[in-house]
Automatic annotation (TrEMBL):
<keyword id="KW-0732">Signal</keyword>
<keyword id="KW-0676">Redox-active center</keyword>
<dbReference type="InterPro" id="IPR036249">
    <property type="entry name" value="Thioredoxin-like_sf"/>
</dbReference>
<comment type="similarity">
    <text>Belongs to the thioredoxin family. DsbA subfamily.</text>
</comment>
<feature type="domain" description="Thioredoxin-like fold">
    <location>
        <begin position="39"/>
        <end position="209"/>
    </location>
</feature>
<feature type="signal peptide">
    <location>
        <begin position="1"/>
        <end position="28"/>
    </location>
</feature>
<protein>
    <submittedName>
        <fullName>DsbA family protein</fullName>
    </submittedName>
</protein>
<keyword id="KW-1015">Disulfide bond</keyword>
<dbReference type="InterPro" id="IPR012336">
    <property type="entry name" value="Thioredoxin-like_fold"/>
</dbReference>
<dbReference type="Pfam" id="PF13462">
    <property type="entry name" value="Thioredoxin_4"/>
</dbReference>
<keyword id="KW-0560">Oxidoreductase</keyword>
């Protein structure tokens, strides 16, 4: 167990250093972003090439992301994703605590494509457990609920290739000018609703319907 904890700590430090560096680096190619497909995209709804693509940048440790997930996602999913009116793309952008967020996304990917969103949504719904227990216990419980053993969990969160791929996804988000979560883009144009919880269903609907009607 000690060696596993040590590996997790090393991964955590690496993720934290990466996050700090990316947060302060100059933003290049800032285009207001989220246009087209990107490496590592996870998606639901309409297939690639759909008339409307909605991209969300979020973190499993972001309280505002969790509120959007709880309050807005069900209505958005029913109206646009389940009906295949839009392609919904989720992109990972870990927020503090960076180590826990990074590990959470690694676990979601290790669980498999068919369980990815289940894991992400479960982590958001149970964020408080990260505080009341420990980040590792919170993540391990979620991993085990998704069918991963503790050994698989330990291997997952210390996978160098997976961590490197995560770094690349973070860099891509930063290069597009995404600096906070949750952030929403409809066909490359950001939709912002004042208040901090994320884009409202009403504002998303206005942007989406305008694109659908073109």
């Amino acid at each position: 167990m000690a060696s596993t904890e040590s590996r997790f700590a090393r991964m955590s430090r690496r993720a934290a250093i990466t996050g700090a560096a990316l947060a302060t680096m100059a933003l290049a190619a800032c285009n207001g972003g989220a246009k087209g497909a990107a490496e590592g995209d996870m998606a639901m709804g309409a297939p690639e090439g759909a008339k409307v693509t909605v991209v969300e940048y979020a973190s499993v440790t972001c309280p505002h992301c969790a509120l959007w997930q709880k309050n807005t996602w069900p209505g958005f999913k029913a109206k646009y994703v389940d009906t295949n009116k839009v392609r919904y793309v989720f992109r990972e952008l870990p927020t503090p605590p960076i180590d826990a967020a990074t590990a959470g996304f690694l676990v979601a990917r290790c669980a498999g494509d068919d369980k990815y969103f289940d894991v992400v949504h479960q982590l958001m719904a149970t964020q408080q457990e990260m505080i009341t227990t420990s980040p590792r216990d919170w993540l391990l419980r979620t991993a085990q609920a998704a069918g991963l053993s503790e050994d698989q969990f330990n291997q997952c969160i210390t996978d160098k290739d997976a961590i490197a791929a995560m770094d690349q996804r973070i860099q891509a988000a930063r290069a597009q000018g995404v600096t906070g979560t949750p952030a929403f883009y409809v066909n490359g144009t950001q939709v912002i609703t004042p208040g901090g919880e994320g884009a409202s269903l009403a504002d998303l609907s206005t942007a989406i319907d305008a694109e659908l009607n073109k």
